[in-house]
Amino acid sequence: LMERKTHVKINRKEVILAKLRKSCSCTTQKLKNSVMDFFPVLRWLPKYRCNEYIWGDVMSGLVIGIILVPQAIAYSLLAGLKPIYSLYTSFFANIIYFLMGTSRHVSVGIFSLISLMVGQVVDRELLLAGFDLNDDAPPALGDGSLQNDNLSNRTAFNLTIAGINAECGKECYAIGIATALTFVAGVYQVLMGIFRLGFISMYLSESILDGFATGASLTILTAQVKYLIGIKIPRSQGYGMLVITWINIFRNISQANLCDVITSAICILVLVTAKELGDRYKHKLKFPLPTELVVIVVATLVSHYGKLNEVYASSVSGAIPTGFIPPKVPEFNLMLRVAVDALPLAIVSFVFTVSLSEMFAKKYAYTIRANQEMFAVGFCNIIPSFFHSFATSAALAKTLVKTSTGCQTQISGVISAMVVLLVLLFLAPLFYSLQKCVLACIIIVSLRGALRKFRDVPARYHVNKLDTLVWVVTTSASALISTEIGLLIGIVFSMLCIIVQTQRPRTALLGQIQDTSFYEDDFEYENLSTVPKVKIFRFEAPLYYANRNYFLKSLYRLTNLDPNLEAARRKKYEKKEKQHLKKGNHRTANGLGIRETTLQLVPKQIDFQALVVDCSSISFLDTTGVNTLKEILKDYKNLNISVLLACCNPSVIDSLKRGGYFGRDFGCMKEMLFYSIHNAVLFAKDQK
Q: What are the STAS domain coordinates in residue numbering (predicted)?
C-alpha cells in the first residue's frame, strides 16, 4: 500500500507578508546588490580577463561595426526614415546593452523585422497627416550639415495634428512618430519586467516565430523591389500591402530605371556569391568577409564619379548629416496614437532578444536573467528615443557573426558602437551618392536565412503536421494581411490547435503483452492478448468540460456498449413483460416465452464484467471531468459492471476525493483505485 504524505499547510498570508517585508526593507548590502543586478556590467567588468578576452572582443566588435554601418543605412528604407536615425539607433543600443545586458554574445541593434514594423506605423501616420509617401524625390543639395538638413525638411504643411509645431515637416513628423512608438514599446517592456510577465513569450512557439519572420521577410522583399528596378510607386498601407504593391509594380514595370536594374543585378550577384563562398569556407576564414561594406564603397564611388543621379536619374541616399541632433522628449500626444501598435513591437523585440540570449548562453555554458534582459531591451528603447532613435532588438545574423569572430563579452558591443560613432562624426556625408537600389540589395540578400525556411517545410511536415500548419497560417497571414495581425493570428491558431488536440485526443482499448504485466494499444501492436471479462480503456488527455462528450462517445464505441441505451432497453422489456403478465399471457409481445425473454434481456454484446480506465495520461480533472467519471461509475454499476481507475496522479486523486467519487469516508477507495493496470486487472478477475 502507498500512503500519501501529510503536508504542512502553508499560511499564504504570512508568506506574502514576509516577502513584502523583505522586499521593502532597505539595507546597504541590498541596495548594492540591486544596483549591481540592474547594471550587470558592475559584476563582470572587474573580473574581465584582458589578456584572454580582449583580442576576440576587439575583432568581433570591429567586424560587427563594419557590418552595422551598411545595414543601418539600408534598414532606414524599411523604417521610412533617414539613414542618420538608423546610425543613432545602432550606436545607443550597443552602449546601453553593454551596461544592462546579461548575454555576452547577442548583438542588439537595428533589426529588419522591427524596422519593418516601425516603418508600417510611420507610413500610416504620415498618410493620415496628409503627407505624400513617395520618398523618391531628388534630395536637396547641401554640405551635409545639420542646419541645411533641417531647413530642407521644412515643408509648406501647416500641421496642427497632435500638437506638432507648424514648421515640422515630413521627416520631422516621421521621426516623431518613430520615437514615440519606441518610447511606449520600451515602457511596455519595463512594465513587463517589473510585473514579471516574461511568461508571455511562452505563447510564441518556434513555428509562430519562424512563420512570422518568413511572412515579414516576404513583405520586406516586396517593399524593396521598387528600389531594385527604380520605379516610383506609392508605399502601400493597410491590409494586403504585399498584393497591392506587386500589382503597382507590374503596372509600372515599363518605367523601370535601366541603371538601377543593372546595378541591382551586379550587387545581388556579388553579395550572394560572397555569402555562399563565405558559408562554404567559413571554417577556413578567421572572420567573415565585409562584403556589404565593399559593395557600398565601390557603388558610392561609381555613383559619384559616374554621376548616376544626374545622368540616369538613379535614386540616391542624399545628404547624411554629421554629429548628434540635440535630444528631444517624445511627444506625449503621439504616444497615445501609437500605444496599441507598440504592444506587438515590444513583445516581438523582447522575444527575439531573450530567445537568442538563452540559445547562446546554453551553447557557451553560462546563464542569463530573462527579467533583466527585458529591462535591458526596454531601456535600449526608452533612452535612445530621446536621441532620435527607433526600436531595437537582437538579430540572429549579427549574433552568429559575433560568435564566429571570437566574441567573449559585451565589450564587443562598445567597439561596434565606436565604429558607428566614427561614421556619425566624420564619414556619414561620404554616402551621399549611394544608390538606394544598392541598399535594397543588401536588405534582400540579408533575408536569405528567413526565406530558406521554405526548403524546410517537407522536413517540418514530416516531424509534426500541426506545427507545419501553424507555420503556414502565420506566414500567410503575416505576408498577406499585416505583420501584427499575422502574429496575432498565429498565436490564436496555435492555441486552437492545442485545444483541438485535447478535445479529440487518442483513445484506445489495451491488450496485455504476453507473459508480462504490461498493457498496450491493441490497435497499434500485434500479438496482444485480450483479458477475459475485462475492458481496459485509455484516454490520452486531461478530462475537462471541452472533451467530456468525446470521452463518453469513444468509451461507448470502443467497448461496444452504451450503458444508458442498454438500461433504457431493459426497462422497456421489463415494462412490456409486466403488462403481459397482468393479462395472464405467458407469451411476451415479441412472441417469446418468459424464460426466452429473460435470456434476451441479458445483452449479447456485454462480454465484460469490469472496466479499467487507464488514467496515466489524464493530467487533471475539472468539475465536469469528475462528474463524468461519477456518471459512468453509476451507469455501469446499474449493469453490474464495476469501474476501476488505474495510474491516477495525486492531482487527479485529490480532485476525485473532493468531488465525492469514493464516497464520504473513502471506504471503497481501495476497491476503486489502483496504482497499476495489472493490479486492477487482477482485482477484476477475482471478482465474482
A: 524-684
pLDDT of residue 525: 92
Match 561614421 to its residue by C-alpha cell: 423
Q: Do residues 62 and 415 make contact, with C-beta atoms less than 8 angstroms apart?
A: yes
How far is CA 389 from each of CA 93, 111, 414, 504, 680, rounded to the nearest angstrom?
A: 9, 13, 17, 50, 68
**Cα 481 to Cα 224, 345, 682, distances in angstroms:** 18, 17, 60
> What is the value of pTM for the model shown?
0.81
DSSP letters of 234-289? PPP-STTHHHHHHHHHHHTGGG--HHHHHHHHHHHHHHHHHHHHHHHTTTT-SS--
What does the pLDDT look like over 154-180, one tens digit per residue?
A: 443 444 444 444 456 888 899 999 999
Cα 564 to Cα 410, 423, 514, 571, 624, distances in angstroms: 69, 81, 34, 11, 18
At 180, which amino acid appears? A
Of the CA atoms within 13 Å of residue 114, those in its CB half-sphere come to 34
CA–CA distance, 93 with 410 (Å, rounded to integer): 12
Confirm if 424 and 322 have CB atoms less than 8 A apart: yes
| Residue 510 scores a pLDDT above 70 | yes
pLDDT of residue 567: 85
Compute the distance between CA of residue 401 and CA of residue 677 in angstroms, rounded to an integer: 55
Residue type at 194 in one-letter notation: I
Strand-pair partners of 593 = 587
Q: Which uninterrupted H or E stretch holds 507?
A: strand 507-513
- Residue that has been written with the C-alpha cell 543600443 in this structure: 93
Q: How far apart are CA 310 and CA 316, in angstroms?
A: 10
Q: Which domains does the chain have, with CATH numbers?
A: 40-133+169-232+248-500 (no CATH), 507-569+604-687 (3.30.750.24)
Find the mean pLDDT for residues 205-230: 90
Continuous segment of H or E residues that includes residue 73 = helix 50-79
Task: Judge whether 216 and 478 are in contact, CB under 8 Å.
Answer: yes
Work out the average pLDDT over 282-304.
Answer: 82
Short-list 61, 77, 135, 150, CA closest to 443: 77
User: Are the beta carbons of 398 and 109 closer than 8 angstroms?
Assistant: yes
Q: Over 70: is that where the pLDDT of 48 sits?
A: yes
- Residues 270-291, mean pLDDT to the nearest whole number: 80
**Minimum mean pLDDT among 96-100, 198-202, 305-309: which range?**
198-202
Distant-in-sequence, close-in-space partners of 550: CB < 8 Å, separation ≥ 6: 503, 504, 505
Q: At a CB cut-off of 8 Å and minimum separation 6, what does 469 contact?
A: 493, 497
CA 92 to chain centre: 26
